[in-house]
């Protein structure tokens, strides 16, 4: 039995939009599984189906061994769900927020107090538990949200974008809490994120989702290794013979994959040192001038790029032309 198992799960909204398109995934018990994708990829829709808040249009989904379509109550008894948007009531204290949620979850009175004490300890809010949540920092609020997801000590915890919008330091802290929860309670965790580093640090396995479709599923390490261990990024002066150049580069022995963004070419390779002179040779034989070139190690961002043909966040990616030029300038300086 898997913690989560779906078979060709699909969701078509009334608008006709297919937000989830034949998604088949398996989350082993005790695993942290990451659903990685850009805005609108279908991550929250999938989570809402798995947590029984939304009915699938077709396909099957089982959570903790129960069918989300026919055994919704049993599914709910075995899961915790931390929504993308906070559900905290700011005018209640941290403790009161958990009390309220515990009552809504029908957690018996005799275990409620002890459970809440324990959770406040885990999320390190014991000393601030009697202050109104409005006085909490962003990280503290997120911790309280996560605490709410732990109230019924679920077998499977769903975290939808647990660190979205938090600063990097707070994000690291939240990762520590997630790890702690996972290790202490041997919980299976399904999280969505569009932070590559988050998926890389936390997850045993990752599925990359884009436009409702799974592009690939594997461990972060295997995904990165599949691209070779180095990346050469270079910019050419004219795009006229770009296709010719790319097709020549693809034939080279050390090349795993090539992608382009305007005049910027990204080559995944097993040996940058061998490849760079060959790129110059090919370019020169086609009378193409290389404006700049650099060598880096692959990250999950690169994995995403190679499977979707675009950066996870076009505005932030290192393949963005402006960013790329700035980077090149820094390298030259
Ligand atoms: N209730 C709805 N009715 C119609 N379309 C919807 C509805 N909810 C979501 N969508 C659409 O479905 C697609 C997937 O949305 P979803 O919220 O699942 O994406 P996501 O991967 O969670 O994105 P984000 O990273 O922004 O949270 C989007 O195109 C979205 O506009
Ligand atoms: Mg979402």
UniProtKB/TrEMBL annotation:
PANTHER family: LINEARMYCIN RESISTANCE ATP-BINDING PROTEIN LNRL. Belongs to the ABC transporter superfamily. Drug exporter-1 (DrugE1) (TC 3.A.1.105) family. Pfam families: ABC_tran (PF00005), DrrA1-3_C (PF13732). Residues 4-236 form the ABC transporter domain. The lineage of its organism: Archaea, Nitrososphaerota, Nitrososphaeria, Nitrosotaleales, Nitrosotaleaceae. It is a peripheral membrane protein. This is ABC transporter, ATPase component. It comes from Nitrosotalea devaniterrae. It is found in: Cell membrane. One of its GO terms (biological process) is daunorubicin transport.
């Amino acid at each position: 039995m898997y913690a989560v198992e779906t078979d060709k799960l699909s969701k078509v909204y009334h608008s006709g939009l297919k937000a989830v398109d034949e998604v088949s995934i398996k989350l082993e018990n005790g695993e942290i599984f990451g659903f990685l994708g850009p805005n609108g990829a279908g991550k929250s829709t999938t989570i809402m189906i798995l947590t029984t808040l939304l009915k699938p249009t077709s396909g099957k989904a089982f959570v903790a061994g129960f069918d989300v379509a026919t055994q919704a109550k049993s599914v709910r008894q075995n899961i915790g769900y931390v929504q993308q948007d906070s559900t905290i009531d700011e005018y209640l204290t941290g403790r009161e927020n958990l009390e309220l949620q515990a009552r809504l979850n029908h957690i018996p009175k005799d275990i409620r107090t002890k459970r809440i004490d324990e959770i406040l300890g885990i999320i390190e809010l014991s000393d601030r538990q009697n202050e109104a949540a409005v006085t909490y920092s962003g990280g503290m609020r997120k911790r309280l949200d996560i605490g709410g997801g732990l109230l019924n000590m679920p077998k499977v915890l769903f975290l939808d974008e647990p660190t979205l919008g938090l600063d990097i330091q707070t994000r690291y802290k939240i990762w520590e809490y997630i790890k702690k929860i996972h290790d202490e309670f041997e919980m299976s965790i399904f999280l969505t994120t569009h932070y590559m580093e988050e998926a890389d640090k936390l997850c045993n396995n990752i599925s990359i989702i884009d436009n409702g479709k799974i592009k690939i599923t594997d461990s972060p390490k295997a995904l990165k290794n599949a691209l070779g261990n180095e990346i050469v990024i270079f910019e050419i002066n004219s795009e006229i013979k770009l296709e010719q150049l790319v097709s020549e580069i693809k034939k080279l022995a050390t090349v795993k994959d090539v992608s382009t963004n305007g005049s910027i070419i990204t080559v995944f390779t097993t040996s940058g040192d061998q490849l760079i002179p060959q790129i110059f040779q090919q370019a020169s034989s086609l009378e193409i001038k290389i404006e700049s070139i650099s060598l880096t190690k692959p990250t999950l961002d690169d994995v995403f790029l190679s499977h979707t043909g675009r950066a996870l966040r076009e505005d932030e990616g290192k393949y963005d032309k402006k960013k790329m030029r700035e980077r090149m300038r820094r390298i030259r300086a």
